[in-house]
Amino acid sequence: MKILVLNCGSSSIKFQISEMPEYKVIIEGSVERIGYENAELKYTAKNDKKLIICPVKNHEEGINLILDTIFNNNVFGIEKSDIGAIGHRVVQGGDKHNVSVRIDQPVIDYIENIKELAPLHNPNNLAGIYACQKLLPDVVQAAVFDNGFHMSLPESTYIYGIPYEYYKKHHIRKYGFHGIAFRSMAEGVDTVLNDSHKKYKIVNMMLGSGTTANALKYGKSIEVSTGFTPHEGLIQSTRAGDIDTAAILYLMKKENLSIDQTDEIINKKSGWKGLSGISNDMREIYGESQSGNERASLTIDAVCHRFKKYVGAYSAIMEGIDILCFSGGVGQNAYYIREKICCGLEYMGIEIDSDKNRSLSGTGIVSKDSSRVKIIVVQANEERVIAEDTYRLARV
Fold first, then answer.
1. Which of 68, 146, 260, 369 is catalytic?
2. What residue ranges define each of the domains in the chain, with the CATH number in brackets?
3. Phi, psi (deg, nearest 5) at residue 226
4. Which of 163, 214, 268, 313 has the most CB atoms less than 10 A away?
């Protein structure tokens, strides 16, 4: 069965078609800059990369462009009738959906009702669902919820210290995100160790453009750095992360900022980008730091301080740590970030092997043989998790 996976962001759509159950990727790519005249469709198939630039007004046009490109190109040998199911990444499932589900009208109504909980994500996820209903009306669709992995959080963990009635009235609580990626990371740990992650206390560090730390104790998520929105927690590429909320109120008064303007600042103009004044790309910031740029060096120090703090905090929450796991573009590729996080944690049994760490390509163990805590680098594959869940649901 061929599964189409869609991940609809605010101005982009990532897509992949794979053959299941063996998970053989046939084509993958993205549509970037939705809403612009110079939108870009990029895809890779059979080791061939293509780029198409054309106007794309909205997500429906973007998905239509993807489907037309795939089905009208004989190179791929795929027809619309070959698509057995469509899997969607849905960022926010609220406090109801902790497992992936087949999409029907009640599920759509539920996602509509809670879309204010993720205004930058769920409306776009819904746009993808509606577009597929129109363009592929007879194909089964599935929703894979990004926060579902964290529905095992204890109430004492997800509750905020605000008047309790606001939690009951407005559902304001910690939800946590990157759950699909953490599921994939757990599978990666199983592969590297040839053992079950459910035997261990693991601190997961998903370090990409968006970053999230997770405490995974014997297979259950018991803490997560992202909260009511993906903003909370670590310093991210453009998000400020943990900050005194009174400082935000102070800034709004001083700069006479609206709510929308403030949202723009803390979510899109802060983080690595705002601190460095250079870029939201860690590679560029690191390059500048090596050239003596003090703000670039400060950014890396601040980011790693926050990363390290969460490793210690989550080890305390779990009453121990057996594995420290890294993934994401930065977690996998930035050896200097892993090194900086682990430096000084030898007292916790975390001993990184500098040679292994710097020479690693792909996945593997980068801790010393003497290290009580294994430091593992894995590649998270969210699309595979979505494809597997969608295939299972389509066969029910």
1. 146
2. 2-145 (3.30.420.40), 194-382 (3.30.420.40)
3. -70, 155
4. 214
Q: Where are the alpha helices (DSSP H) in the chain?
A: 59-71, 105-113, 122-135, 155-158, 164-170, 179-193, 245-255, 259-268, 271-276, 282-290, 294-318, 328-333, 335-342, 354-359, 382-394
User: Which has the closest alpha carbon to 303: 339, 272, 342, 331?
Assistant: 272
DSSP bridge partners of 17 = 4, 27
Largest CA distance in the chain: 60
Structural tokens at position 391: 């295939």
- CA 115/CA 96 separation, integer angstroms: 13
The DSSP element (H or E) to which 88 belongs, if any, is strand 83-90
Average pLDDT of adjacent 10-residue blocks, the chain of 396 residues = 91 93 95 91 86 90 89 78 95 86 96 86 90 93 95 97 96 95 98 98 95 98 96 96 98 97 94 97 97 98 98 98 97 98 98 98 96 98 97 93
Structure tokens at 94: 């609220």
Q: Is 138 a catalytic residue?
A: no
User: What are 25's strand-pairing partners?
Assistant: 18
Q: How many CA atoms lie within 13 A of 10 on its CB side?
A: 6
DSSP assignment string, 323-365? EEEEEHHHHHH-HHHHHHHHTT-GGGTB-B-HHHHHH--SSEE
